Amino acid sequence: MIKQIALLLVFACGPLAAQQTVVLAIGGHAGDMEVSAGAALARASRVGAKVVLLHLTLGENGHPRKSAADYASQKRAEAIAAAAALGAEARFGTWTDASLRPGKETEEFVAQVISDVKATHIVTHWKHSIHPDHEAAYVIANHAALLAAVGGWKGVRSIVYAENWEDPEAFQPYLYVDTSDDMEAWRRSVQCYEFLRGGVSAFPYLQFYEGLSMVRGAQARKKHATAFDIDPMGKRRVLPIWP
Ligand SMILES: [Zn+2]
User: Fold this and answer.
1) DSSP for the chain?
2) Whole-prediction pTM value?
3) If you measure from the C-alpha of residue 193 to the centroid of ligand 1, how many angstroms do you get, rounded to a whole number?
């Protein structure tokens, strides 16, 4: 508790005092950001940040027994409940599953959301994925941040990439967030989705991401952690002397 209060005071008294931290998570499908980054988003919300999840599509095509229209309605309701469990707000794009592409329409839409919510931090998919919607979300999010800046919102301070089982190629865990106290909120959130509870996909989402949080936690010397990558250019360090 004291640690949380101290952290809040840092937020209140430090350079962030003038601008509230707003984390915008941009996912290709409803559920992507919750499973991969949800624990870290819950932590951000818990220490005072505003957290918004933007689902560019509902990911409505994957159900073996339900129509896309029925599953879309279900996933929208699941996404709203999953966001609430993280202390976050859910927003939605208008695109259909498997049809998300970079371009003026998608990028201007996301730029408007970035400006509207006054995003200071963005998390989205890594650049390489087995799913084209995820790769599209990466491009759209980066172009949209630039468009938002050109349009007047220059408050985005970082863009990081979540660790997703479908986006593994060349992903390197670089930043680690201690999520030891946030796994319960994460479980409550992701279990709002039927695809997490089984019967929709054979992939063991809950076990994979719970196990991954323990692997990343061990690497970070914590019980649980969520890892993110950043753009390679951001890893360049310039030193005044020989290291
Ligand atoms: Zn997805």
Assistant:
1) -HHHHHHHHHHHHSTTTTS--EEEEEEEETTHHHHHHHHHHHHHHHTT-EEEEEEEE--TT--SSS-HHHHHHHHHHHHHHHHHHTT-EEEEEEEPTT----SHHHHHHHHHHHHHHT-SEEEE--S--SSHHHHHHHHHHHHHHHHHHHTT-----EEEEE--TT--TT----EEEE-TT-HHHHHHHHTTSHHHHSSS-SS-HHHHHHHHHHHHHHHTTSSSEEEEE--GGGG----SS--
2) 0.91
3) 13
